[in-house]
Every structure is written in structure tokens, then in C-alpha cells.
Amino acid sequence: MSPNFRIALRFLTAKKRAMVMSLSCIVLGIGLFIVTQATTSGFQGFFIKTILGTNGAILIQDKLQATMRSIAAGGYNSGYEIRQKEGQKYVEGIDYPRQLAMGVKRFNNVAAVSEVLRGTVTIRSSFRDQTGQAYGIDLEDHLRVSDLGSQIVQGSLANFRVQQGGVLVGRVIADKLQLEVGDTFEMVHLGNIHHYKVSAIYQTGVNDIDSVRVYLQMSEARALFKKPTGATYLQVSLIDKDRAREDAVVMSNALQHSAAAWQDREKSWLGVFRAFRIATAITVSVFTLIAGLAMFNTLAMIVMEKTKEIAILRSMGYTREDISRIFLWQAAIVLGIGIVLGCALGAAITYAVSQVPLPITGIFTTHKFLVLWSRWHYIEAVMTAVAMVMLASLIPSRRAARLEPGDIIRGTAQ
Questions:
Q1: Long-range contacts of residues 367-374, Cβ cutoff 8 Å, at least 24 apart
Q2: What's residue 404's pLDDT?
């Protein structure tokens, strides 16, 4: 143990109450920072998982077609034209989905691709009618790009595979139309009426999906929409979801179809979660700021009260750097204890919060508080505390280092 460290420990006992106050604020600041970041990140992570499990990482849909205009060069009857690109227009749908899917699968980050044919329908039961969206899928392909297999709450996918006219109905639709597994109902598209039977009921937790979507086999959808070929879009699952934007740009240029990454499709909700994280981080950092101010005040008082001791140390050969280190060691000791206790407090509260029941429905469904365990929350909390406390400790430590023994003895030290 160095002499500077031992002296710092001795000086700490001079202001026990003030140091305990600083320590308490550091512990609370770090603990609450960890908890708030864990909860906001937990809800954001679950939202992203829900979105990826229903709509995929990338949607490839409308064909891109360049628009051209002809400009006569050299006046009329000049004999030639200049064709100038003005931009692009979107041609709705995909003409050759199987060939396009084969091209998508060539990208090294692609895990799976599902062909989807979508259309607006009127859903009729004996109880009431409502507008919905019918999604024609190849079940095995779609299970690879979504969490549909784990979202079944009634019935089974086995029935859907083999049942003629079988469909998967959202939980909200089933409740509104009072449908149960095995019930029959009608779907109408442009006057084309087909009868279907509920094979299973699914629940994604996203109200906008569960209240409108009906899944049916691709062959059934083609008969309903009278579309023997083509698809509305391709749903793509990625190995690394965070590369979705980069992959979407490359796919769009290579395949000449629009590609929408999940980050762009859900930009508004992701912005809300990001704002919550920043707001909570700023709010709880007030405790760390108070700890820094308390440390500044405490060290300043110790400098004023320990001027004689500082003079003795300087007379014994201690340099200005040694005196500065003594006071910085005091801040570091309190900060080190605060970091350990704060991280422990943050972990304990995070675990306790994760066990709190919290039924939520809307943009997703959960039955308890969601948390995300990440070392970065602890690193961010510790770095914030270190920055604020050590910066606040620099001024009094530098003031102590500037004191001269002669000025202290004469009583002229500033």
C-alpha cells in the first residue's frame, strides 16, 4: 500500500457523513441507471423480436422501373434522340417470385425466404362482418421466416397443413367474429366468395396484425384472388438482423425491386424507445451529478481543514503531484466502493423488476416486466459516475497541490 493511499484513507475519516452522502448518491445513480436502461432496452428488444417474428427483417416487393423521356436533339427531323433517365417508378407486386426468391437466397446473410400473396377481403361469420387482409403462404417457408409456429394459441398447424380450406385466424378477429377452431366462415374478394374453416387461432400480440390477418395456403389464396401467378412480396429472414439496412440497399440495386429493412419500417417506434432511453438516462444521472457536487464540496472542505497537514507533508518532501494524488485517491476510494455497491444494487433491482407481473397488449403482448441483461448498461453507468465524480474532484485536488508550506505558516494560503 502506497503512502499516498494510506494518507487518503486517513483523510477520509475526517468527513465521514459527507463521504457517506457522496457514496449513497453514487450507489443510487449507478443502480437506477442500470435498472432504467435494462427495462427500456427490454421492451425495445421484445418489440423488435415481435416485429421480426411477424413481418421479417426485409420485405422485397414492388418492381423498380426506370422512367425515360425522349428529347429531340438538333430540332425536328434531326434523325436521332437523347434518352434521359428521370427517375424510377414502382410496379406493384412481383411477377416471378420463385426466381426472385432464388436470387435472394444467394445473399450470404439470408436465412430463409417466404413468398406471400396478400389481398383485402371481407370476412363474414354468422355473427358479423369485418374487413381484413388474407395472406397466402407456403407454410413451411413461412415458418422459417416468422414465429408463426410458436404463436398458435388454439388448434394446430397440422390441421392447417392437411385441411381443405383451412385457415389461421388472429385472436382479435376470432373474438370479434366469435369464431372457434372448426367453425366455418366466408371471405369475399371483389364479389368472389369462398368458404373456409378455422384450423387454428394465432396471437402475435400485435393488435394491428391479430385484428386483420388471415393466413391461408398459397393455392387457396390464388383461387380467392384469381391470381395464378405472382406474389405481393417476399418476406426475408436474416442471420444478422442488424445488417438489414445494408442488405436491403444491395438487394434493391441487384434485384431491381424495392427492399424495406425492419429499421426503416419501424422507424417511428424505434425512435420512441430511443427517446425513452435517453430521457431516463438523463434523469437518473442527476444522482451521479449530485454525488460529484457532494464530492467537490467534501474535498474542498478537507483542503481547508487539512492545510497544516498539507504543509507538513510538503516540508517532508511530498511534491505537488503527491498532494494531488492523495485527494484524488479519496475520490477514487469512494467511487470504487460506490461502483461495486451500485452494480450490485442495479442487478438486484433489475431481477426483482423482471418478476413483477405487468399485462400489456397493443404493439406487443407480455405478462411481466421485460428487462434486458447487458454488460453495456453497467459499463455506461460506471463511466458516467467516473466522469462526473473524478472531474468534480480535480479542482479541490489541484487547489491542495498549489498550497505552499510558507504561505500556510504565514496564514496567507489561498
A1: 369/39, 369/42, 370/39, 370/42, 370/43, 370/45, 370/46, 371/38, 371/39, 371/41, 371/42, 372/38, 372/41, 372/42, 372/44, 372/45, 373/38, 374/37, 374/38, 374/41
A2: 62
Per DSSP (E only), the strands in 233-299 are 233-238, 257-261
pLDDT tens-digit profile of 379-405? Answer: 999 998 888 888 888 877 777 676 665
| pLDDT at res. 322 | 78
Give every residue of the chain whose pLDDT is below 50, as ranges.
69-85, 412-414
The sign one gets for the Cα dihedral 27, 30, 35, 38 is negative
Q: What CA–CA distance (Å, rounded) separates 213 from 148?
A: 12
Q: What is the pLDDT of residues 170-209, one digit of tens each?
A: 999 999 999 999 999 999 999 889 999 999 999 988 888 8
**CB < 8 Å & 24+ apart, contacts of 387-390:** 388/285, 388/288, 388/289, 388/291, 388/292, 389/22, 389/26, 389/288, 389/291, 389/292, 389/295, 389/331, 389/334, 389/335, 389/338, 390/328, 390/331, 390/332, 390/335
Per DSSP, which regions of 203-344 are E strands?
Answer: 213-217, 233-238, 257-261
pLDDT at 67: 55
The length of the chain is: 414
397466402: which residue's cell? 136
Structure-block grid coordinates of residue 160: 392447417
**Residues forming a β-bridge with 196:** 185
Structure-block grid coordinates of residue 318: 511530498
Burial level of 65, CB count in 10 A (0-12/13-18/19+)? exposed
Distances (CA, A) of 325 to 24, 294, 399: 23, 19, 12
Alpha helix (H) residue ranges in 56-170: 97-104, 139-145, 157-162
Q: Is 298 helix (H, G, I), strand (E, B) or coil?
A: helix
For residue 203, the SS3 value is: coil
291 within 8 A of 331, measured Cβ to Cβ: no
Kindly report the pTM of this predicted structure.
Answer: 0.71
